[in-house]
Amino acid sequence: MERLPEYLILDHRVDRLSHQDLYRLQSERLRAMVAYCYHQIPFWRRKFDAAGLTPADIRGMDDLHRIPFCTKDELQEDQAQHPPFGSYVGIPRSLWAHYAATSGTTGRPLRRVLSARDWQYMIDRFRRNPTLGPGDIAVILGPVDALIGPMVSSETVAAMGAMVVQAGLYDSITKLRLISDLRPASVSGTASYLMYLAEVAKDNGIDLPGIGIRVLSAFGEPGIALEETRNRLRQAWGVNRIADGYGVTEIFPLGGNCAHSTSLHIASDLVGTEIVDPETGESLAPGEIGEVVITNLVGESQPLLRYRTRDISRLAVEAACTCGFTGSRLEGSIIGRVDDMIWLRGVNVFPSAIEAVVRKLPGLSPEYQIVINGENGLASLTIRAESSAENPSATELSALQERLGREIREAIRVSATIELVSPGSLPRPDGRSKLRRVVDRRR
User: Fold this and answer.
1) Can you name the residues that pair with 265 across neighbouring β-strands?
2) Is 106 helix (H, G, I), strand (E, B) or coil?
3) CA neighbor of 247 nearest in space, from 287, 217, 285
4) Are strands 417-421 and 378-387 parallel, antiparallel or unpaired?
5) What domains appear along the chain, each with residue ranges and CATH number?
């Protein structure tokens, strides 16, 4: 069988290549990947033939736009027709080494198979700049089974010499007691669950800032880059460093922010990154907001070209980050999901814009819920938020409600009905499944 070349991934210098050198490296790997996909993988040969393309037509990254998009719906259909992993698998069964799957929050989960080569590449990517070492403890709060991010994180931390504690099956108070006793260097989970644990800790007299945690790592949700959310987490947990991780199960864990920036640093030797208009598919320039599209440049197991992630962000305009990273960066992290974007009376509304308002206002808990009602195209928006005061007066509640309504209107350019509810009324994350804060009741 034909295989891709072996690449050196454990080399931190690749994160600081010049624009010209990075372009040459990506173009060389793209050419090899396109030839591999066409000659080795039936799924991609069908797509190329249907588009009238041959591998010779793709000479470098400037030709990337000629390759047809790939979508999750396509992959789900292909796996249904060619179980268990679809016809886009490039390796024989003898090389299957690791299994993962998408969370399944937006439909049937996609199964992911990886060779030992691809698995090691992911670990090597994160070992370039080690953050932990011998004597450190890392606690992972969420489930690990079949989730590529937590699984790779666990093995990477262990490869750095630190101890990994997988606490996903424990209840919240048990997790907090474990953290209090172990005094870990790092704790990771979704931003919403980390926020919730801070509430539980306060109610149970657990001093999180006194534990001495160095890093909080958040993953799996947009919004962690919001300064309001980060400030609440810093204060509640007593940390300075909040790491925002980003990855796509169908591709790889791709990177995260640095100490100087909230922008996501994408491993540009592993993937190519584009931003396109979610409606037209037209490529957008750096600084323009659109859908993130990722092309796998090195993975042999289930390589995807121009995969539409449905995540919304924009490419950074500056050539390099303050830390020296020169690869692609998603400015300000992930803004939201195409699936969660609310089209309301001619305006696009992202839940993260509402989250930013709720979490900066004193007198409110960090929890909120967005309810959309209406029919026949006439929609109305209700924001449900919790007062954090024990026994607020009617005057205080009225003033808080008025201020929240005003700031929501300024943030999203649409008026909303504000409903203040008592503390603890809204749904809380459980650390195991994704909390949906948007309730769409439109017919």
Assistant:
1) 256, 329
2) coil
3) 217
4) parallel
5) 12-114+248-339 (3.40.50.12780), 124-246 (3.40.50.12780), 341-440 (3.30.300.30)
Count, residues in the chain: 443
- DSSP assignment of 83-101, as one string? TTT-TT--S-GGG--EEEE
- Residue 377: predicted pLDDT: 59
User: Residue 302 contacts by C-beta under 8 Å, 6 or more apart in sequence?
Assistant: 85, 86, 88, 89, 90, 112, 113, 114, 250
Please tell me the distance from the alpha carbon of residue 291 to that of residue 393, in angstroms, as a whole number: 45
pLDDT at residue 27, rounded to an integer? 98
Buried b (16+ CB within 10 A) or exposed e, 231-261: ebbbebbebeebbbbbbbbbbbbbbbbbeeb
Cα separation, 232 vs 218, in Å, equals: 13
Q: How far is CA 4 from CA 23, 31, 394, in A?
A: 19, 11, 68
Tell me which residues of the chain have a pLDDT lower than 70.
Answer: 104-107, 345-346, 375-377, 432-433, 443
- DSSP H or E segment with residue 194: helix 191-203
Give dist(CA 75, CA 77) in Å, integer.
5
**Using CA atoms, how far apart are residues 53 and 68, in angstroms rounded to an integer?**
9
Question: Would you state the pLDDT for residue 356?
Answer: 86
Amino acid at site 435: L
**Which own/partner contact pairs does 345-349 have at CB distance under 8 Å and 24+ positions apart?**
345/379, 345/414, 347/412, 347/413, 347/414, 349/381, 349/412, 349/414
How far is the C-alpha of 152 from the C-alpha of 144, rounded, in Å? 9
SS3 390: coil
Question: Taking every pair of C-alpha atoms in the chain, what is the biggest distance, in angstroms?
Answer: 74
**Terminal-residue alpha carbon distance, the chain:** 52
Cα dihedral value 227, 230, 234, 235, nearest 10: 70
CB–CB of 112/101 below 8 Å?
A: yes
